[in-house]
Amino acid sequence: MFNNISSKKVYEQVIEQIQESILIGELKKGDKLPSERELSDRMRVSRTSIREALRVLETMGVVESRQGEGNFICTNIEKSLIEPLSMIFKLNDGTWQNVLELREMLELQTVKIAAITSTEEDCRELKAIVDDMKKETQQSSNKKEIVRLDQKFHKKLVSMSKNYLIESLFVTSSKLFEGFIKDAREKIIATSWTQEVLVDKHDAIYEAISCKNPDEAYNKMKEHMDIIRKSYEEMNNTENC
């Protein structure tokens, strides 16, 4: 799996070999790495170089160290994307418009894919979420519960795309989205008219997907995102007054 190393910046070459093993499929999520001693023997480098490489890989979110068990390829690679994306966003004075544009780009295309790839089971699960949203809106109007169901709906949509890259980007952008616009979802559904309209839009998205109509699904998601954008604009104007 690994080759001998004999040059300066040894730890960087150790990192490259481990990354290459992941890219070609020799190492997969959750796999346990050989011990530091074994890696040192295989690569013919010092254990100090191995240790340094593992520290860097852990910081990158590629490797996770488990006390008393060893080092493993991280099962939650999305974590390695969140911090650098957040840093880039803040260093470039990102705005809520930037966050929303990223979400729109992801979800508008994802919903078209979901309409093609979704199974009957997927559609049943999506309908159950919409039904729960309707009940919550009509009966108790528990904002936190409606927010939870809204998040569950969009997460389910992304999983229906059957595309792990899209899921990873969605998870990453969602963390950024909710970190930057704190409590935004709850503020949006604070008014009854918004609640009812959003539930109707979720229902329309579900109907388009269940009918395997990607263009209609796109149009309904676009209407939904237009409402979200309008709500953010109103919130932003109010807070700046």
Structural features, described:
With about 240 residues, the protein is mostly helical. About 75% of the residues lie in helices and about 5% in strands. It contains eleven helices and two strands. The chain has a two-stranded antiparallel sheet with strand order 1-2. A hairpin with a 3-residue loop joins strand 1 and strand 2. It is elongated and about 65 Å long. It starts with 9 loop residues before the first helix and ends with a helix. The model has no long low-confidence stretch (mean pLDDT about 85).
SSE succession: HHHEEHHHHHHHH
Count of alpha and pi helical runs: 11
User: Largest beta sheet: what is the strand line-up?
Assistant: 1-2
Q: Give average pLDDT, whole number.
A: 84
Question: Portion of residues in helices?
Answer: over 70%
Main beta sheet: 2 strands, antiparallel
The shape is: elongated
Residue windows where pLDDT falls under 50 for at least 5 positions: none
**What is the rounded Rg?**
23 Å
